[in-house]
Amino acid sequence: MRGTALAAAAMAGVLTLAGCAKDSGGSSTNNAGSGNNQAGNCVTAPKPPAAPPSSSANQTGEKVDGSKLKVGLAYDVGGRGDASFNDAAAAGVDKAKSELGVTQVSESTASANEDEAAKQQRLEQLAAQGFNPIVAVGFAYAKAVGAVAPKHPDTKFAIIDDDSVKAPNVTPLVFAEEQGSFLAGVAAVYKSKTCHVGFVGGVNTPLIQKFEAGFLQGAKAASTKVKIDDEYLTPAGDISGFQDPPKGNAKAAAEIANGADVIYHAAGASGKGVFEAAKAKQVSAIGVDSDQYNQKTVADSKDVIITSMLKRVDVAVFDYVKAVAKGDLSSVPKRFDLKVDGVGYSTSGGKVDDIKDVLDGYKAQIVAGQITVSDKPQK
């Protein structure tokens, strides 16, 4: 997973600045059509057709009472406050409190490299204490949910990022991370001044490879000459890659030193280090999971965050809790993708406002099936 790069094509230099690596302005000579002058020298794909008008049906007025629920939330490493994945789940439960009247919530967090017994014990304790439903935040809980759920058939469980547990009382909450990451790749190319972007993954697992795959495909779709650095913090099995900001900082700093000026991370709490490295060199960064521009724990670096790939774990958790309160789980999507706004991109800070039409155009093509995004990295 090291140093994936698409060799730069011939420099276009007729009365314009010489190539994207040293671009400081000037009008685009292709039909990318964005207001971003620098992007014009890196973007090689035509601007996608405009997205059709949104026809979102507003489902207001449905009153659901969740006051009798006792919600258990078992976080992955990092827990509430990681400014990313776990915080998104927490936001879903917070919304359930405010909109559904949920009052009883128990939250607990996995420690780094804890054994399987500890995860099972966490879920067993929640079930024994009468919490129902119980949401396991992350694929690392798959074995534990598979072991505990059958012992508590009257307790409803949900697990995020895993659909391997086949039990009648278990609901998988899975996402099309590759689709949202495709848009992150497009944004990176349009905002790059050097035509060189980077990806930092936390742990080299099939899940994080979905983020990587979408980012690579999106960047390549927008440009045939972009260079991409592609790195992981730890190999599969070493979960510390999601909780090591210094390592994230070092890896991002190395990519920046190599020429990358937009870095996308899918590294959990380690992303804080990625943002710090980007700020130190005044390059751009793309967040993940939550709208990280608005996350207090990374507020010192917010000015370099141009967008975040939104993985709407908050929506999934809220929709699941609401469905349990209604007694009807059939409304929970089988997969939270672009079509149901289960993934997407943020616009906080206004840094991608000038390319929103481009991103929405690509989104429309993915939703319509005109672009199929792979969940396996294509080098």
From TrEMBL:
Q: Which Pfam families match?
A: Bmp
- ABC transporter substrate-binding protein PnrA-like domain location: 75-355
Q: Can you say where in the cell this protein is located?
A: Cell membrane
Coarsely, its chief localization is: membrane
Q: Which residues form the signal peptide?
A: 1-21
Q: Per its UniProt record, what InterPro entries does this chain match?
A: BMP_lipoprotein (IPR050957), Peripla_BP_I (IPR028082), PnrA-like (IPR003760)
Instruction: Read off the CDD domains from this record.
Output: PBP1_PrnA-like
Q: Where is the composition biased (Low complexity)?
A: 23-41
Membrane topology, record value? Lipid-anchor
Q: Where is the region Disordered?
A: 23-65
Q: Member of which family?
A: Belongs to the BMP lipoprotein family.
Please report the name of this protein according to its UniProt entry: BMP family protein
